[in-house]
UniProtKB/TrEMBL annotation:
Belongs to the ATP-dependent AMP-binding enzyme family. Pfam families: AMP-binding. SUPFAM superfamilies: Acetyl-CoA synthetase-like (SSF56801). Residues 25-409 form the AMP-dependent synthetase/ligase domain. This is Fatty acyl-AMP ligase. The keyword Cytoplasm does not apply. The keyword Ligase applies. One of its GO terms (molecular function) is adenylyltransferase activity.
Length: 553
């Protein structure tokens, strides 16, 4: 029997719930009410012929609709796939083709549509895809017969609970198969590490089609009885201060966001007045990469509002591990490992910089320590030939444990994720320090110049600090320079992209800053208008696609 669905049913007997509709029309809905609606939906799904092990896809923006729709699928024994959502710029004809490809990969039996996407219903039906609105699904009578989740052994631990789409191109979709066992193991471990118990209050604007939003702030509260306040990414982007105002208003204790949001929050806090952020004890930053400068700026800006200096928790996670892999111990200060750049790039060893241990002009790199692995997860660093590396030796991070997936679903069918010893290759470069995880970057993105392994994130961080560059919108990619020499190129977004004089100033500033900080000169720099750089649905910059936008020198 699934411990996960047992927990959903148990929480429905309590008083916790979710608040949605801020800032215009806040409404609190208890998990008991959501569960009652979900039971209606589960019965309707069963009546449509769904059986345990089948797949349901969901596209909805409102958390108050996503929550009962997802729980309805789980109570019926089905898995949930949160579909990526179209934007105002989306080509709907291409979107329809890509969505159909995703539905084939996960073998979805039905698509559940909620606001603001119900207008897509005729398009899906015309394409031969079974679809229904969330409101229609939840509007019928309560089921008379027991649901699969009500029967002992009705939902097995190895049945899929989530088929989580990865952050790659939607044209070649890939989904991570997350079982009931995986979900419960990861949620249980995260709650233990972060001391998440009833009485805490979670606040989030994260998209629910991304694993951090869907699992961390929609699924976890429903199965652990944690009060949660949810708004949409659009709400946050239209008014970034809203995030912090909600933490104040609801005495939020836990939140999470990618790195750019903390940098943005630091700026808006500089103009804010009258906030009280003293309740916030756990603000997870799990972005790629985590910029310690942005974290420090957020903590400094929040100090006058009572924000604890230990509030930000740097973490490592990925969909293949359900969500969390390691958390920096909460309630302790930010820890940064500063290492000598030359040893990192040339010998793949993270040599720590101690006070007085280097000359003034020696280049360094700084990486946040991401804490020890969560309970039940092992992390190993492997080098060439699968050799297990020791502390501070840089290699590829590998994971294994009860919350780590066993397979991907792809256009070519299921693909195993683990090797013969149970290890999953994350594709991330990193190292361990006394059992704590450090991530340096992605293996596929490393730029090799003159025997040096240069991480694009280092270049991007420097370029992003040049005046006129839009925060969080700088990309460095491998580039073949004249004569076939391996080099790199930089692309940035700027609101001044239409001004030739400003473009030249920004380009020169990037070339100078990067050459000084990194010790290597970009082969070319391209300044693009705002909104040009391609991103994944979860907001990560797509380096390979960005390369196509770069203008040769």
């Amino acid at each position: 029997m699934s411990a996960f669905t047992d927990a959903l049913i148990a929480v429905a007997r309590g008083t916790a719930g979710m608040t949605t509709g801020e800032p215009r029309e806040p409404v609190r809905t208890s998990f008991a009410d959501l569960h009652a609606r979900a039971r209606v939906g589960a019965g309707a799904l069963r009546d449509r012929g769904l059986r345990p092990g089948d797949a349901v896809a969901v596209m909805a923006g409102a958390p108050v609709q996503v929550a009962p729709a997802a729980q309805a699928a789980w109570l019926a024994g089905a898995s949930v796939t949160m579909l990526h959502q179209p934007t105002a710029r989306t080509d709907l004809s291409r979107f329809a083709v890509e969505t159909a490809s995703v539905l084939r990969v996960v073998r979805a039996r039905v698509v559940l549509l909620g606001a603001p996407f119900t207008h897509l219903l005729p398009m899906l039906l015309e394409a031969g895809i079974d679809a229904v609105t969330v409101d229609d699904l939840l509007s019928g009578p309560a089921p008379e017969e027991p649901l699969p989740a009500d029967r002992p052994g009705g939902i097995g631990e190895e049945l899929p609970a989530l088929l989580q789409l990865t952050s790659g191109s939607t044209a070649t979709p890939k989904a991570v198969r997350i079982t009931h066992r995986n979900v419960w193991a990861n949620i249980d471990a995260m709650c233990e590490s972060a001391a998440i118990v009833p009485g805490q209050v979670m606040v989030s604007w994260l998209p629910l089609f991304h694993d951090m939003g869907m699992i961390g702030f929609l699924t976890l509260p429903q199965c652990r009885g944690i009060e949660v306040v949810l708004v949409t990414p659009q709400d946050f982007l239209s008014s970034p201060l809203l995030w912090l105002e909600l933490i104040d208003r609801y005495r939020g204790t836990l939140t999470a966001a990618p790195n750019f949001a903390y940098a943005l929050a630091a700026r808006v806090l500089a103009r804010a007045e009258g906030l009280d952020l003293s309740s916030l004890r756990f603000a997870l930053n799990g972005a790629e990469p985590i910029d310690a400068t942005a974290v420090r700026a957020f903590l400094a800006a929040g100090e006058r509002f009572g924000l604890p200096s230990t509030a930000v928790v740097c973490a490592y996670g990925m969909a293949e591990a359900t969500l969390g892999v390691s958390f920096h111990p909460w309630g302790t200060p930010l820890a940064v490992d500063t290492v000598l750049a030359a040893d990192l790039e040339e010998r793949r060893v993270a040599v720590p910089v101690e006070a007085g241990d280097r000359s003034e002009d020696a280049a360094t790199r700084a990486f946040p320590l991401l804490g020890p692995p969560l309970r039940g997860i092992e992390v190993a660093v492997l080098g060439e030939g699968g050799r297990v590396l020791g502390d501070r030796e840089v290699g590829t991070l590998h994971l294994r444990g009860e919350s780590v997936t066993e397979e991907y679903l792809t256009v070519d069918g299921p693909v195993a994720t683990r090797d013969a010893r149970g290890w999953l290759d994350t594709g991330d470069l990193g190292y361990l320090v006394d059992g704590r995880v450090v991530v340096c970057g992605r293996v596929k993105d490393v730029i090799i110049m003159g025997g040096r392994n240069i991480h694009p994130t280092d270049i991007e961080r420097v370029a992003g600090q040049v005046d006129g560059v839009r925060a969080g919108n700088a990309v460095a990619v491998r580039w073949t320079a004249s004569g076939g020499r391996e080099s790199f190129a930089v692309a940035v977004e700027s609101r001044a992209a239409g001004d030739p004089a400003e473009v030249e100033r920004i380009s020169a500033g990037i070339r100078s800053a990067v050459t000084t900080a990194i010790g290597a000169r970009p082969a070319t720099v391209t300044v693009l208008p705002v909104g040009s750089l391609p991103k994944t649905p979860s907001g990560k910059l797509r380096r390979a696609a960005a390369r196509e936008l770069i203008t040769p020198a």
